[in-house]
Amino acid sequence: MNDIYPSMAAHCYYVPANITPAYEQHEQEQPIEFDMSANDVSFERKIVSKRGRDAEDYETTGQRCTYYRNSVSAISAKRTKAVESQVREEEPLLADKERQAVNMLVDLFERRATVSFYEGEPLKALSTLVYSHVYHLQLSAATAFSEISEMDTRPVTREALEPILYLLQSPHIDVQHGASAALGNLAVNMDNKLLIVRMGGLEPLIRQMLSPNIDAQINSVGCITNLATAEENKMQIAKSGALLPLTRLARSRDLRVQRNAAGALLNMTHSAEHRQQLIGAGAVPVLVELLGSDDSELQYYATTALSNIAVDESGRQLLWKTQPVLVDALIMFVNTSTIKVQCQAILTLRNLASDDQYQTQIVEKGGLDSLLPLLQSEYDPLVISASACLRNLSIHPSNEKPILESGILPCLVSLITQSGNEEVQCHVISALRNLVANNEADKTPFANAGLFDHIRAVLVNPASSEVVVGEMIAALNVFVLDESLWPYIIDGGFLELLIPLTRSQNVELQYNACVTISSLAGKASEASDRLAQVWDRPEGGLQSYLASFLTVDEGMDPVLRSVALWTVLLLLESDSPDLVRLVTGHPSIIKNIDKIASIDSLPEGELRNSAYTTDSLAGLRSSRGFMDGEGPGADDGPLDESDDEIYNRMITIAQDVVSLVQSLDI
After folding, report:
1. ∠ at Cα 140 (138, 141), nearest 5°?
2. How many CB atoms lie within 10 A of CB 214?
3. Once rounded to an integer, what is the mean pLDDT over residues 504-531?
4. How many of the other CB atoms lie within 10 Å of CB of 57?
């Protein structure tokens, strides 16, 4: 979960089977963790009390809200007499109970570090001031609560919140300020966030937001910003009518109000439902306007919120139809803004690039020129953001030529090994995979850039994660389909690296390795010598893999068995005497295929628990060698087939192998 970042990833864009889908981050259902989280972008704002009338209103280092504070020292030993004197002039004399409460609080504040004001006699004394009819006592109570809450944000009880909420409804603006400051401070704690909303704290805060008083707006919006970081509160905030005034206040002429309102809007972009509610409140044009601000915090909040809105297809379509300057503004940020705004601008472009119209527009408007320097940055978040964006841009066929002409290819290839970040490695190999799949021209520049040397270095590195290795093999499975690239794979020793991976416990890695071997078997007529060399090595070689996958038992998955059968069929179709002899002369391969071919029906429950019929393998069936014709794994392959269809497909391939063997002059 991300605490302050576009929590959404790009929507999964439908693309051809050989193209890597648009990069998805975990829903950013909540803002990204800068993460990219997720995922809950939280702008925790500690309310800071003003130290006198001439003090600064805003602490820029923490982007903190402020409130206008009077009588800061009202409860102190030195000023008790002065306060009482002022009260006598303007209010009736203090009641004995009120006087006792003031005296107790004077003593307690002198040792405040050791006192809990949220319970017992201290809370009782503060409550006496709260429910007094004397204005200055209420103000002193509000001031005390705001000061206490700056230091102590522990979870509090209903009894502690009730007097603060009462003060929030005071007709006196100064009292409201102190109460809202206290609520905002307490709302840093998750338990308190929930309790404040459950006790009806939103309604008086919204009334303060509607006030023409700037200080009231600052405090109330800052408090709602904190409350909006709790998922349970977001629906209540949306239903409360707060979104319209928040949207209006994001256009305030006061920077403090704008920042707080923009932060609140961002915190409401962490789920599809709330994003739609924000769109209905008219937040999109306001957020785009904020991109024109000179304030980097506003730029960041607005860019992050727009990134989250761009997670949904409906959000992207709205942006496309109504915000023609959006891409220009984001590219400008990539080139000129602070690092965190740069990162978020690129991630927003990445999410937008889930749609083909944005994929081409970003390139047409010069986005590629902005990405190359960032790919060479030493700051990982920038490299991650830039590589993720390029991954999505590489999906569109018309972008292939400008991407390659931009000179970015050597940089992408080098990042396969030079980056120590798994995300970067996965993004760049996926981008390269897309570029090869989209490119009908000669692909030798990819090989000349050292593509296969870098992939091999990753595969032989024991420190490489299974996720990265899986991406590399999936890319190899696309590269082997290209006439100019497959010789580099067959001659580069990749078969020796793939065969051991057919025994991997990682189902995606195992499947990708098997399918890539099958694709290489499709080149058997031209590479029979290399395939023969790996027949019995390493680790038992190709024959050991095929024999184990073709063993007739209930434990072998029909999808993997179909891949092995298809591989055998391709080897036999090669017309290579050596390969035909090795396959047909094996003691178990053909015998077991005979048994598979004679199976009549699907055994009850055999496929139901298959790991290869789940969405975990979506997008992996990308081998044309394995897909074309009647081979399993076609564009509408096993994931779209019923259990019976998968099983019948396996039996059909086995029968084809048997027929072919019978036709051979052995």
Report:
1. 65
2. 15
3. 94
4. 15
